[in-house]
Amino acid sequence: MRWVIAPDSFKGALSAEAAAAAMAAGVRRADPAAELCLRPMADGGEGTLSAVHAALGGRWREHRVQGAGGEPLDAACLVLPDGSALVEVARVVGLGMGKAPPMARSSFGVGELISAAVADGARRVIVALGGSSTSDGGAGVLLALGARFFDAEGRALSAAPHDLLRLARVELGALQGLPVPLELWSDVDNPLTGEHGACAVFGAQKGLTVAERGVLDTALSRLAALCGGDAAAPGAGAAGGIGWALQRLGGVRAGGAAAVASAIGLETAVAGAGHVLTGEGASDAQTLRGKAPYCVARLARAAGVPVTLLSGRIELSAELAAAFDGCFSACHGPVSLKDAIGQASEALEFAAWQIARLRVAAQPAGPG
């Protein structure tokens, strides 16, 4: 039987590639003759470049840019076989990278990497927006691409949030749209500001206090008013507002998981498969809001192929159960987070083995 194995990463434990390999090993134990098609997935956040590279190949290009706190950083983008350059925000200003406080973090390095990709001859630039540690409204990206910011006294400002609080004037004369198509991969549909905006919804996970979230939201509203663009557009609040900045430059938004699935040819891989296996670190109601396993499940259902969810932790609901033909946790009993992470590969392999044994046993017996 042909199996398609397409998990997302198990954050903090396994990359999508490692998770797929562990699941494949379990299936192989149950069915040595199984045909295995591994398609590691991502949703536009951390791990997107690796998932696309695993399926399509491409060339890695590394550039020296600024990290979130202004520190020098060597960040890679992926040049795809069609000449597109894929940039992953999480590789430049990702959560957990650097030591700068939240109000000092800027997306300047993302703009530098986009500019470098264009200078290298990219025919199209794709930006995977998930996993950002910044909340500067994408001001850093605009600054790197030619915008200038000033306070009321005419002093030049950086794009760090603590400077944006004093923003009074912008100069956009040197800011131009990119000379190539720009595509944005993200499943976040939040606006830039307001109660559903970047600061209100994502500020806490990036370390902003309640007070900082309030004053910074006001500053981002002023930034948008001065620069133009649609602050209320779906996805404007992605990556701390980088979504708004790149839409301001002509970027077109696409659903992250669906875009990755299309890029790696997942629909074609699923067609004619006997079973599909997917998963992620933790599955709950949020999984159904465009996350990678749900995207995999929809493709499998459309093709009439059974699909099983195998995740580290599952908060089961009727809606989640209905989206898959079985939902299983890799954790077999009470276990600490530390132990779950340490045993993730072995646990996934064992659980996949059990799922595949059941699937094989349910197959009609052959002649004789």
From TrEMBL:
SUPFAM superfamilies referenced in this protein's UniProt entry, alphabetically: Glycerate kinase I
Pfam family name, one: Gly_kinase
InterPro entries (UniProt xref): Glyc_kinase_flavodox-like_fold, Glycerate_kinase, Glycerate_kinase_RE-like, Glycerate_kinase_sf
One example of a Gene Ontology biological process annotation: organic acid phosphorylation
Coiled-coil regions listed: none
Molecular function terms, GO-annotated: glycerate kinase activity
NCBIfam families attached to this UniProt entry: glycerate kinase
Protein family: Belongs to the glycerate kinase type-1 family.
Sequence intervals crossing the membrane: none
Superkingdom of this protein's organism: Bacteria
Keywords: Kinase, Transferase
Protein name per the record: Glycerate kinase
